Each structure stands twice: as structure tokens, then as C-alpha cells.
Amino acid sequence: MGSGMNKGDKKVISDVAEYGFHIINVLEDEEGPPHTFSIGLFHSFKHPEVIVIGLNTDLMKDMVGWIGEDVKKGLRFETGKAYAGLLECFDCTFRAVAKKRYPEYLGYAMWFYKGMDFPVVQCVWPTTSGYFPWDEGFPGDLIEWQPLLDH
Length: 151
Hints:
single chain; alpha+beta
């Protein structure tokens, strides 16, 4: 993996080797909301990579970092279960990400894995009223900030 890699590519490889994972922040643009994802959790710990969409980038980076550190300690984040501690006062849950969504959101992870042969889970957050995107009462305008990637 040495030739043809830029400084960013080398940093990803180095972080995965040293820490077990690397975190990528993608800023909001005309194509979509900000999102943050891990690279290396599957490689290092056989745990799905994690993506968070639509929150403040610093918060999402912290969330993916906390999840990564918990995975290093042996915790597994499973789809459909609620997990406390990722957002103050709110439980988050996880959903499997459909492979057809990888190119749009996980391009750098696809570079690292040389394709789409790795699992990803989306950490889904509720509104301050406790509604998830699939709940009646979830504001329709927020779905643009947290699209569900499981289909």
C-alpha cells in the first residue's frame, strides 16, 4: 500500500495499525448532511464500521471515537438495541447499512477495504422529544439530516 498514497491515505493506514481504527469527518455540502464514520473496526476487531449522520461534526467524531474505544474493549454494538451514553440523556440505536449506500457515504472506507466487503452500522439518534426517524412524530424536515441507510 505504499506507492501512490497521499498523506491522508498514510494517516488512515497508520491510525488503523496503531489505534485499530481511523475517523473520517465529512462536512455538509450541497449533496448531503455532515457525517462521520470509522475505518478499521472491521479490519481490527471484526466489528462493523460505524457511521453517524446529521449532527455537529465534533460530536459525531466523539461518538464514533467512543464507540471505537468500546469496541476495542470488547463491546459489540448490535442492530435494534438501544445504547445509552453516546448522546447525553438519549439512547441511540443501530441499523445495518445497505451496501448500495456505501458509495455515497463511505468512499474512503471502500478504498481501505478495496471494495464493499465489510459491514457497516448506522448509529441513529432521536430528536430531543425522543422520536426516531421511523416514529410517528419525527419531524419530516429532519429526515434530510438523518437519512436511514438500511434500504
